[in-house]
Design goal:
The protein is an alpha/beta fold and about 500 residues long. Among the domains are: about 300-415, TonB (TolA/TonB C-terminal domain, 2-Layer Sandwich), CATH 3.30.2420; about 420-485, no CATH class. About 45% of the residues lie in helices and about 15% in strands. The chain is built from 17 helices and 17 strands. The strands form five sheets. Strands 3-4-6-5-7 form a five-stranded mixed beta sheet, with helices on both faces. The longest helix is centred in the first third of the chain and has 30 residues, at about 90-120. It is elongated. The two termini are about 45 Å apart.
Length: about 500
C-alpha cells in the first residue's frame, strides 16, 4: 500500500510539473480542466495497470540466504482464524484513520457553514438557480444550483456577477471541487491534493470570466473585479470576489487567446503516460542458480552470524534485564506475531493454509532488513512480511565484541480453525482458565506445537480429565491432558 501511495504522489507531481510549466498560462481553460481532472484520476489508476507488452525484468540486488540458515530456528508460531475481540490498529493505521477523521470533521463543518448561510438568507427561486440573499453582506459565490449573494452587492449592477455564477452552475464546477474534498479526506497526508484543488478552482474562475466577458463589456467587468469585497473561506465553493485570485483573473482577461497550434502541448501527456506504464509493468527478475551461489558466498564472507551461533543474541525491547535473553527473544517474537496477525480474508475464502518460512536480518544497527519468505501462497507470504516489518528496533547481536548482522528464521503456520483438535481442546479449556497438557506419541509438546500439527497425520486423540488425568500424569495433569497419536 505504501508503494502504491508513493507511486500515486510521484505521478501527480509529474503531471503538475507539466501543467505549471507548459499549460497553465494558455487560454485553453476547458482543456486544462479536463487535464487536471483526468491526470489526477489517472494517477490513482496507473499503479494498478500491468501491460504485458511493456513487462521487463529488473534484476534483484538482495543477498540470497544459504539454504542451511532457513531451518536453524526450530520454534515456530501457529496462527489461526480467531474472532476479533475489538479494534486492533497499528500506530500507523491509527494516524491514518485519525487524519481521515479530522479531515471529515472539517468537511462537515464547511457543510454546516453553508447550511447556516442558506437557512439565514432570503430565498428567491428562478428557473435555473435559487438565489439566497444574505443580510448586511458583500459575499457572492455559488454552490451546486444556489447563488449566495449579499444584499450590498444587489444595490450595485450585479447582472455580470449572476451571469458569472451561472457559468459555474451550468458547467457543474462544484462537483469538481467536491471530488477533491473527498480526496482530501482519503488522502489528507498528500499535499498535492490541495495543489490540484487550488489549480482547478483557478480554472473555474478563468472559464466563467471568459464566458461572461463575451457578453458584457470587458472594461466594466475588470473594474468590478478590482473592487474589494468580503469572501467566505470555504474550499469547495466558487467565490466571485476572492482577493488572492482577482489579480490573476484580470491578467487572464487581458491576455490574448492562445494559438490553436499550442494545443499540441497536450501531446506531452502521451509519452509521460507510456513511461509510467513501462515503470508499473516492470517485474523483479528471478535469480539464477549461479546468482544464488554467488550471493550465498558473499553472505558467508560478510559479518553475518546466524542467531543459533552468535555469541550475544540480539535483544528484543523488554528483554534487557532478563537472564535468558534468547528465550525472552523467542517469546516476544511469538507474541508480536500473535498480536498483529490477521488471516487474509482472500486466503480464508480460498481455503489456503500452510507453513510460511520467513527469514530476515537484524542488522548491526538493530534494524529489520532483507525480509524473505517461502510459503504456499503469496497471500500468506505478504501477511508474514507485513508483520515482520512491524518489529521494533532491537539491540544488535555481538560477536567478538563487535555488532554484527544476525539472520533469524521462524516458521509461521497458517491454519483455518476447522479441525477436531481445536474442538476437543475447547472441551477442557472451557472448564478451566488454565491450559491442559499436550502429548504427541508420549512426548510432551507446547500448545503452539500442537496447533501446528497437520490434522491429516493424526491417527487418534484422547482426552483425560479430572482424577483419571491425575492418576496417569500426577499433579501436572490436574488441568487435563490431550493425548495425540500420529499415523505410522
Amino acid at each position: 500500500m505504501i508503494q502504491y501511495i508513493l507511486e500515486c504522489i510521484a505521478f501527480q507531481l509529474l503531471f503538475l510539473v507539466i501543467y505549471d510549466f507548459f499549460l497553465k498560462k494558455e487560454t485553453f481553460f476547458q482543456w486544462n480542466r479536463v487535464y487536471l481532472m483526468g491526470t489526477f484520476v489517472l494517477s490513482l489508476i496507473l499503479p494498478w495497470i500491468k501491460i504485458e507488452a511493456f513487462k521487463q525484468q529488473v534484476p534483484q540486488t538482495f543477498a540470497q540466504y544459504p539454504e542451511y540458515l532457513w531451518e536453524l530456528q526450530n520454534t515456530g508460531v501457529a496462527v489461526q482464524v480467531q474472532e476479533s475481540s475489538g479494534w486492533n490498529f497499528t500506530w500507523q493505521e491509527g494516524i491514518f484513520y485519525g487524519g481521515m477523521l479530522v479531515a471529515l470533521v472539517l468537511f462537515v463543518l464547511k457543510i454546516r457553514q453553508l447550511y447556516i448561510l442558506r437557512k439565514s438568507g432570503e430565498k428567491v427561486t428562478y428557473p435555473l438557480f435559487t438565489q439566497i440573499v444574505i443580510t448586511n453582506s458583500n459575499i457572492a459565490f455559488s454552490f451546486l444550483k444556489s447563488i449566495f449573494i449579499g444584499d450590498k452587492v444587489l444595490k450595485m449592477k450585479h447582472d455580470t456577477i449572476i451571469a458569472h455564477e451561472l457559468v459555474h452552475i451550468k458547467q457543474g464546477h462544484t462537483y469538481d471541487l467536491l471530488f477533491f474534498e473527498l480526496m482530501r479526506i482519503v488522502g489528507w497526508f498528500n499535499p498535492l491534493v490541495y495543489v490540484y484543488q487550488n489549480r482547478i478552482s483557478e480554472l473555474h474562475e478563468f472559464i466563467a470570466d471568459a464566458q461572461v466577458s463575451k457578453e458584457h463589456k470587458s472594461d466594466h467587468y475588470e473594474q468590478l473585479l478590482a473592487q474589494v469585497f468580503q469572501t467566505e473561506h470555504i474550499s469547495f465553493i466558487n467565490q466571485f470576489f476572492r482577493q488572492s485570485l482577482i489579480k490573476k483573473r484580470i491578467i487572464m482577461l487581458q491576455k490574448s487567446k492562445s494559438k490553436k497550434v499550442w494545443q499540441l502541448k497536450y501531446l506531452l501527456l502521451v509519452p509521460m503516460v507510456l513511461v509510467m506504464l513501462l515503470y508499473t509493468s516492470c517485474e523483479m527478475s528471478p535469480k539464477s542458480e549461479s546468482d544464488e551461489s554467488i550471493n550465498a558466498t558473499s553472505l558467508s564472507a560478510s559479518k553475518d552470524v546466524p542467531y543459533a551461533v552468535v555469541e550475544e543474541a540480539p535483544i528484543f525491547p523488554g528483554c534487557e534485564d532478563v537472564v535468558d535473553k534468547r528465550a525472552c527473544f523467542n517469546e516476544k517474537i511469538q507474541q508480536h506475531i500473535g498480536k498483529y496477525f490477521k488471516y487474509p480474508q482472500a486466503a480464508q475464502d480460498a481455503n489456503i493454509e500452510g507453513r510460511v518460512n520467513t527469514m530476515f536480518v537484524i542488522s548491526s544497527e538493530g534494524e529489520i532488513e532483507n525480509i524473505k519468505m517461502r510459503g504456499p501462497d503469496k497471500l500468506l507470504e505478504d501477511e508474514v512480511e507485513r508483520i515482520v516489518k512491524l518489529l521494533p528496533k532491537m539491540t544488535p547481536g555481538m560477536q567478538s565484541g563487535k555488532a554484527v548482522n544476525v539472520p533469524f528464521s521462524i516458521p509461521v503456520q497458517f491454519k483455518l480453525q476447522d479441525d477436531n483438535i481445536a474442538n476437543m481442546v475447547s472441551e477442557i479449556t472451557n472448564e478451566s482458565e488454565l491450559e491442559p497438557m499436550y502429548y504427541v506419541d508420549d512426548i510432551k509438546i507446547t500448545k503452539l506445537e500442537m496447533e501446528a500439527i497437520d490434522p491429516n497425520t493424526i491417527e487418534s486423540i484422547f482426552i483425560l480429565k479430572d482424577q483419571k488425568a491425575i492418576d496417569t500424569y500426577g499433579e501436572e495433569g490436574r488441568n487435563g491432558v490431550v493425548e495425540i497419536r500420529i499415523k505410522k
